[in-house]
């Protein structure tokens, strides 16, 4: 079964760029049936969708983060990536990667499975 | 943006209770609504997609209903492993989640 694992620095300085990698195992990242997504959750708070990438490489981002976010993919390594620039303390959160399943002609999208999450703290 | 709200924000219940959680969208989202369960320190787990379709492996005591703007998640007989936080998520437009409903032990 497909498993996802996030990796990257746990501490990032303010104004710098947060960079995370999600490694997919147990299945193909190149299947046209799936998208791949990043979601974050500040401590004790709710979930915020960051963006998604299609197997073609095309992306969609949360408008609230769009100016600072880049998601990319390396299918040969079965990895996709998140870069978030100009970070502040408000970007401190657990970051999750997830596979996106679709139904109903693409209208229904849900996240399954999820990685275990990685805590990124923004602090000097 | 579509705003999602959930009620209640928290509830206390006993094993065996019937529990209902409500999710409301700020505009019609048809049936493009999913539910997740999250336990402390763990990633969310999908329970229901498309408002009422139970994920494989999820116990049948969980059910979902609704369309348009109003949706419900029902746990017919609460079990000890069901104490968790539940989130709804819409996919009609830019995906967004509700603020969550925490279910704890009475």
Quaternary state of the chains: heterodimer
Secondary structural class of chain B: mainly beta
Q: Using CB atoms under 8 Å apart, which protein chain pair has the greatest interface?
A: A-B, 24 and 26 residues
Average pLDDT number of chain A: 94
Residues in helices of chain A, as a percent range: under 10%
Cα shape of chain B: globular
Beta-strand percent range of chain A: over 45%
Number of strand elements of chain A? 11
Name the structural class of chain A: mainly beta
The helix/strand order of chain A is EEEEEEEEEEE
Q: Provide the residue-averaged pLDDT of chain B.
A: 97
Contiguous low-pLDDT stretches of chain A (5 residues minimum) are: none
Q: Roughly what fraction of the amino acids of chain B lie in strands?
A: over 45%
The string of secondary-structure elements of chain B, in order, is EEEEEEEEEEE
Number of helices of chain A: 0
Q: Biggest β-sheet of chain B, characterized?
A: 7 strands, mixed
Give the overall silhouette of chain A. globular
Strand and helix layout:
The complex is a heterodimer of chains A (124) and B (106).
Chain A: E1 3-7, E2 11-12, E3 18-25, E4 35-41, E5 48-54, E6 59-61, E7 69-74, E8 79-84, E9 93-103, E10 108-114, E11 118-122
Parallel strand pairs in A: 2-11
Antiparallel strand pairs in A: 1-3, 3-8, 4-5, 4-9, 5-6, 7-8, 9-10, 9-11
Chain B: E1 4-7, E2 10-13, E3 19-25, E4 33-38, E5 45-49, E6 53-54, E7 62-67, E8 70-75, E9 85-90, E10 96-97, E11 101-105
Parallel strand pairs in B: 2-11
Antiparallel strand pairs in B: 1-3, 3-8, 4-5, 4-9, 5-6, 7-8, 9-10, 9-11
Please give a handful of descriptors for the protein shown.
A: 124 residues; seven-stranded mixed β-sheet; globular; B: mainly beta; 0% helix; 50% strand
